Amino acid sequence: MFPQRRHTSRIAATDLLARCTDGVILKRNMAKKPNTAAAGQIRLIGGQWRGRKLPVPNSPGLRPTTDRVRETLFNWLAPMIQGARCLDCFAGSGALGIEALSRYAGSATLLEFERPVAQQLEKNLAVLNAKDATVVNTNALNWLARSGTPFDIVFIDPPFRKGILLETLTLLEQQGWLADEAWIYVEAEVEHGAIPVPAGWRLHREKVAGQVAYRLYHRDITPNAGEEDSEQEQ
C-alpha cells in the first residue's frame, strides 16, 4: 500500500474560510467587488435610470464628477430638481446633466467643446431615450457670451487650471442665463480658495473631496432678500 497523500487547498488571501476541527473547508466566501463603474464609464446613481452605466470616451482633462460628490449635490438639489430647466456648461461625461434628467429635471442643455465627447453624449442620451435633452458642440464661453434665456439650475465644472471659471460666472449673470432664484453648482480646485461671485449669489452649501471644492450657490435678486435671511438667522 502506498502512503496516503495529504491534499492541501490553496485559497486566495482574500477568501474568508470556515473550517471544522479536522481541517475540512466548510465554506468559502469570495471578497466582494466594489460597486463602482469601470474606467471609461459613469454610473447614474439615482432616479429613473439608477444603476445604468454609460460609456465615456478617453479625452485629456475629462474628469467626471465622482459618485460621492454627485450623491451629495443631488441631495442638496432634491427639493428643486423636478421640472427644473438645467444647463451643464462643461458637460464632459454628462455625469451632472444626465443625472439631473434621471431625477426628473424638466430639461437639460449640455455644452461640450470636444466633438467626440459631444457625439458620445448624444449616443448616451439616445440609448436612454432621454426627452428634452440638447447637446451643443461649442465653446462654452462663446455660447454664454450671447443673450440667453434663464435656467433654474446651472452646473459649472470647467477644466481645472484654465482660468475660465470667473469669466463663466460673469457671463451667466450678465447675459441673462439665470432665473431670479437660480441654483448654481461650482466645482473648483481646492487651491483656488474662495470664489468671487456676482452680487446676489449666496453660498448655500460647500464641501471638499480630495483636491476638489464643490459649492452650491443660490441666486436671489428679490429686494431685501439678504435682510430677510439675516432676520431669520437671528
Automatic annotation (TrEMBL):
Keywords of this entry: Methyltransferase, Transferase
GO MF terms held by the record: 16S rRNA (guanine(966)-N(2))-methyltransferase activity; nucleic acid binding
EC number, UniProt record: 2.1.1.171
InterPro entries: DNA_methylase_N6_adenine_CS, RNA_MeTrfase_RsmD, SAM-dependent_MTases_sf
Pfam families found in the cross-reference section: Cons_hypoth95
PROSITE patterns: N6_MTASE (PS00092)
Catalytic activity: guanosine(966) in 16S rRNA + S-adenosyl-L-methionine = N(2)-methylguanosine(966) in 16S rRNA + S-adenosyl-L-homocysteine + H(+)
NCBIfam families, A to Z: 16S rRNA (guanine(966)-N(2))-methyltransferase RsmD, PRK10909.1
UniProt cross-references to PANTHER family, sorted A to Z: METHYLTRANSFERASE
Family assignment from sequence similarity: Belongs to the methyltransferase superfamily. RsmD family.
Role summary: Specifically methylates the guanine in position 966 of 16S rRNA in the assembled 30S particle.
Name of the protein in its database record: Ribosomal RNA small subunit methyltransferase D
Species in which this protein is naturally found: Ewingella americana
Upper taxonomic lineage: Bacteria, Pseudomonadati, Pseudomonadota, Gammaproteobacteria, Enterobacterales
